Amino acid sequence: MGHHVVFINDKYPRSCTTQNKLKGDKDWKVIPILVKSDASIGSNSTILCGATIGKGAMVGAGSVVVKNVPPFTVVCGNPAKILRKVTSKDL
C-alpha cells in the first residue's frame, strides 16, 4: 500500500440530506471494497466503493479504480485501465 491511498466507501458522500439536515447513521450506505492478497496499490490512488482488487494485481500510482481489477493485472490511469498482465519481473 503506497502513501495517501484513499478508499471511498460511500457512493454518494454528502454530509447533509436533501432537506439540508446532517446525515445520521440511517442515512449512510457503506459499500465495501475488497483487496485480495498480494495486491499492490500505488501512492495517491483512489479506490471507489464496490471494487475488488484481485490477487496479485498492481494499481499504478495516482490511479482511480472505479471497477474490479482482475487478478494478476496491472492497471493505471483515471479511470484505471488494464495495461497488461503481471509478469515475473514485476514481483
What does this structure look like?
This protein has 91 residues and is an all-beta fold. The protein has one domain: UDP N-Acetylglucosamine Acyltransferase, domain 1. It is built from no helices and nine strands. The protein has strands at 6-7, 34-35, 40-41, 46-47, 52-53, 58-59, 64-65, 73-76, 81-85. The strands form three sheets. A four-stranded mixed β-sheet has the order 3-6-8-9, with no helix packed on it. It has a three-stranded parallel β-sheet with strand order 1-4-7, with no helix packed on it. Strand 8 and strand 9 form a beta hairpin. The radius of gyration is 15 Å and the shape is elongated. It starts with 5 loop residues before the first strand and ends in a 6-residue tail after the last strand.
Separation of the first and last Cα atoms? 15 Å
CATH evolutionary superfamily: Hexapeptide repeat proteins
Order of SSEs: EEEEEEEEE
Proportion of residues in β-strands: 25-35%
Main sheet overview: 4 strands, mixed
Number of DSSP E strands: 9
Helix content: under 10%
What is the total number of structural domains? 1
Average of the residue pLDDT scores: 93
Helix and strand content put the structural class at mainly beta
Per CATH, the architecture is: 3 Solenoid
CATH C-level name: Mainly Beta
Number of helices: 0
Rg (CA only)? 15 Å
Uncertain parts: none
Please list the strands of the largest sheet in the order they lie side by side: 3-6-8-9
